[in-house]
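Format notes (please read before filing issues)

Several people have asked whether sequences and structure tokens are stored in separate files. They are not. Every record keeps both together, in the order shown below: the sequence lines, then the token lines. Line labels are part of the format and must not be stripped during preprocessing.
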Amino acid sequence: MDNKIKVLILTDRLQDQAKALIEFLKQSGFFEVVGFAENKQQVHSIAEDRNFDYLIIAGYLKNETNYHVIAELRNEFKRFHPVQWAMVDSLINIFCLRYQIPLKFERTLPMDEFADFLRTHKNDPLIR
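Then the structure lines:
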């Protein structure tokens, strides 16, 4: 029996960071990435025949309609936890260097802490 936590990743920007997260989760041994989608149509295609524990929105979605996939999947009786994993993008780092801002506040958990969060909360009650 496979006890891996199944995740589906959605991002319409910051693909490099999302792919780094995918590799990290795969290498941890605790996760199976069932798919990577760049829009809600791709999410629907992947979710059609796959179950997953988490829909991880990596970064913030530039196309707001992609957020609607959460309600649509719930209406299809999919059981999953949606999680927002927002990342500091390179533009923020460039501005901090340019304007000599010594403190940068990460808006996300580091990947290892994020993975621990996912493992800890997998069995939380689902919100409908």
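For reference, the curators noted about this record: The chain has one domain: 5-121. The longest strand covers residues 31-37.
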